[in-house]
Amino acid sequence: MHTLRCIGKITPLAYRIVCINSRVSAKRTVVFWSQQNVHAGGGTRSVSSAPNNENEVGNLASQLDMDSNKSGTAFYVGPFSSLALRLKRVSLTTCFVGTFGLPAALFIKHGSAVPMGGQLAVAGTAAFAAVGSTLLLSYCFNPYVHKLEYVDPETGAPVDNNAISEKDKTALHIRATTRTLLSTELQTVFDPVNDVTVASSVRPFCNFVAAGVPMYCHPEILSEQRLLKVISAKSNRSHA
Predict the structure, then answer these.
(1) End-to-end CA distance of the chain
(2) pLDDT of the chain along its 240 residues, tens only?
(3) Measured distance CA(190)–CA(172) in Å, rounded
(4) On the CB side of 206, how many CA atoms lie within 13 Å of its CA?
(5) What's the CA gap between 9 and 40, in Å, rounded?
(6) Strands across the sheet containing 208-210
(7) Which among 188, 217, 214, 186 is positioned nearest to 201, based on CA atoms?
């Protein structure tokens, strides 16, 4: 009995020690990667001090993820690009499992016990829920812009954002990268002056339309003034 009491006291203590070690390991991992030279737009940034709490660890990890996705030609990178792509892939997986996996498992396990009408009802309900949620998620996240970059209007070649002046940008087109229903890249090249219109107020998660494609950018981190004017026009029309 004395031994059992000792084990009962030691177990919570060991659990707390494991949790503390896990947090310390996570902090050290992020700091280790952050100490490496992070190249973003030609600059170099290093972090030498450890974060003070878990929130700082999360913020630092998010910033490192954004910096690693940036290239010399991109002047805008969606801060939730990896999250949106992950949600799409998870939704596609659950759609496949709900449409084919669940009916197959039901048929294999209860093929003779469940009437065919019941099996069809369960399979139809599962498929409707799985496909419907995937289509709804795709409808909301398809306009999300993962990356914007300047391209030459004649050749279509990307132009280094750090090698051009604000005056030269006015003669360039913009290439936007979004994701399709199957999570593949969809690149749309458009003239920010002639091909961009104000988005409809009834379309969710969309603040402008470029070359007929609905898109969404975070205006608080967008530096392209021609797109900001269109986004502001939609905002003013929504509040009117």
Answers:
(1) 74
(2) 443 344 344 334 443 433 444 443 444 333 333 333 333 344 433 333 334 444 443 444 344 344 434 446 799 999 999 999 999 999 999 999 988 888 888 888 877 777 888 888 888 888 899 999 999 999 999 999 999 999 999 988 999 888 888 878 888 999 999 999 999 999 999 999 999 999 887 788 899 999 999 999 999 999 999 999 988 887 666 555
(3) 9
(4) 23
(5) 50
(6) 196-197, 208-210, 213-215
(7) 214
